[in-house]
Amino acid sequence: MSEPLPKIAVLVSGEGTNLQALIDNLHGKEVEIVAVLSNKEGVRALQRAQAAGIETAVFERGRFASREDRDGAAAAYLAERGVELVVLAGYMELLTPPFLTRFWRRTINVHPALLPAFPGLRAIEQALAYGVKVFGVTVHFVDEGVDSGPVIVQRAVELPEAKEVEQVREVLRPLEHAALVEAVRAVVRGEVSFDPDNPRRVLVGGTPSPSRWR
After folding, report:
1. Do the beta carbons of residue 37 and residue 11 sit within 8 Å?
2. 177 part of the active site
3. Is residue 150 within 8 Å of 200, Cβ to Cβ?
4. How far, in Å, CA of 89 to CA of 204, rounded?
């Protein structure tokens, strides 16, 4: 009898192209996406999930007394469904301690910049304003800071003539998709560990070991 697939959840706020990449490449093959959560009603990402037969839920801030209450309720919802890994795929809010405590080192995020440069909102705009020649994407573990957790995967591309946000975004989008799929695959295979000499340094590869995360 085969092992059950690792259960993951995806948190979204918008279009959901990164979610679609996970559905197309991993869902039902290497992971089971058991829930897609959004902080907004009616976003395209929820429609993508529903089209794939994945359970969805909306946890809007206004329905709860505080962000901590909202995040605590969301964490409990995911825990009830046996979620082992949480993936932030265009989720445009910071998670509070009640959530991160439940899923510590089990929550990852994809960001459209080469961290630690240009964290937070409008990362591409920040990079263009700075005049960088190399752009990129980062998948990292989530901590209580702003895009400050340990890096899992990064991909870069030279765009020395770039001037427009949408131009950069179109180039970065397939890099985001590939990096996120790569990172999720590495985590669920147990190929991700932390350097004992530097806990910020994530080691990817080597002999798979599910005990590293499950």
Report:
1. yes
2. no
3. yes
4. 20
What is the value of pTM for the model shown? 0.95
pLDDT above 70 covers a percentage of the chain that reads 97
How is residue 100 written in tokens? 């991160």
CATH of residue 49: 3.40.50.170
Phi-psi region of 137 (alpha: psi -120 to 50; beta: other; left: phi over 0): beta
- The boundaries of the domain holding residue 45 are 1-104
- Is 51 inside a domain boundary? yes
Question: For residue range 160-176, what is the model confidence (pLDDT) as tens digits?
Answer: 999 999 999 999 999 99
Q: How many domains does the chain have?
A: 1
Distance between CA atoms of residues 13 and 8, nearest Å: 17
Backbone φ, ψ for residue 43 (5° rounding): -80, 155
Q: Which amino acid is at 93?
A: E
Choice among 27, 111, 140, 177 that is catalytic: 111
192 closest CA partner among 148, 156, 150: 150
Q: 141 has which bridge partners?
A: 108
Phi-psi region of 53 (alpha: psi -120 to 50; beta: other; left: phi over 0): left
**Following CA atoms 45, 51, 100, 152 in sequence, which dihedral angle do they give, to the nearest 10 degrees?**
-80
